[in-house]
Amino acid sequence: MLSGSIPPGLLHGSFQFLILSNNRLTGQIPVDYAHGDIDTIDLSHNQLTGDTLFLFDIAKPMTKIDLSWNELAFDMTKVRLPYHLTYLDLSHNHIKGGVSKSLKDIKLRYFNVSYNDLCAHVPSALGDLSMLETIQLRRIPGLYGSIPSTLDKLSRLVLLQISDSSVSGPIPEFLLKMNLSALAITNSKLTGSIPQFLSHLPNLRYINLSGNKLTGSIPPGLLHASFRVLILSNNHLTGEIPEGYGNDDIDTIDLSHSQLTGDPSFLFSTTKPTTKIDLSLNMLEFDMTQVRFPYHMTYLDLSHNHIKGEVAKSLRDINLEYFNVSYNELCGEIPSGRFMASHGTDSYLHNKCLCGTPLPPCKKW
């Protein structure tokens, strides 16, 4: 693990690479690296400080710049990206301003300015990056406005990720023009319903729209391909969960903190590959007694619903790291043995008439 500052003049000749990531380097980046013929510069995961604007210029031959996870501070509005740049990661710094508008015709494929102090609309200039495959704008509270229509030109885009922002408005229909496999817009201010047209994105396998103000029902058929993830928690969704999701190859389902109704027991089966299900804080109703849960499940939260019957005996064979059925209408003796011993009192609180370990013993009549 290297420490200290970066010495100037380390590189010579053409086609230079400077990769000093994952160390404990401190201080500022020497200005003379602005004049080298550098193709790749990766100084990520250090403790570097200062202004690095001198590294950016449209005429430079750089194809990759990774300065993430440092303490760099500069105004990104003034950045002029190298024409041949394909990879830019400036995340986890103290960068201010807005996103540079000098993006037209840049060959960028990966763009990440997450965890910074930017304050601007979602940059419409990103639509000029026709080769772009990944956009990550996470944890930028100063990011606001709707998703700009200029992004409809990003036909190669695979991942769109925005989180902890003030991005607002409906989910735009022009997302259909993209090649999305993952859509994550979370803890923001999206409104309206989840549009059915998302089901027409043939490669979409990961959706996370949690923590918004979305209303209406959950459309069927949103996910495709393998290792699917459906996270729609902390919205104002209503209606029943479409039964088609019971036939899908879904790893994670989180529909918690909404107003969903109906019987979701079709989601459970011993042969399903699901590892996490969170349906807590809804108005779901079913009899749990005979339900058989997926063997590979590690997380199950059904708390704060209207679940009846007994705690399913099939849970004895499921090695759950987290289990919660509190605040329901369950009754009878809690099954014992095998993996049930790892669940404490909090897992069962505020039910109708549950008894047995870890709760008080059942009464003998």
UniProtKB/TrEMBL annotation:
Which of UniProt's keywords are assigned here? Glycoprotein, Leucine-rich repeat, Repeat, Signal
Which InterPro entries did the record assign?
Answer: Leu-rich_rpt, LRR_dom_sf, PGIP
* Cellular compartment(s): Cell envelope
Q: Which SUPFAM superfamilies match?
A: L domain-like
Gene3D superfamilies listed in its UniProt record:
Ribonuclease Inhibitor (3.80.10.10)
What Pfam families does UniProt report for this protein, alphabetically? Answer: LRR_1, LRR_6
Among PANTHER family, the record links this protein to:
LEUCINE-RICH REPEAT-CONTAINING N-TERMINAL PLANT-TYPE DOMAIN-CONTAINING PROTEIN, POLYGALACTURONASE INHIBITOR 1
Q: What is this protein called?
A: Uncharacterized protein
Q: What is the lineage of its organism?
A: Eukaryota, Viridiplantae, Streptophyta, Embryophyta, Tracheophyta
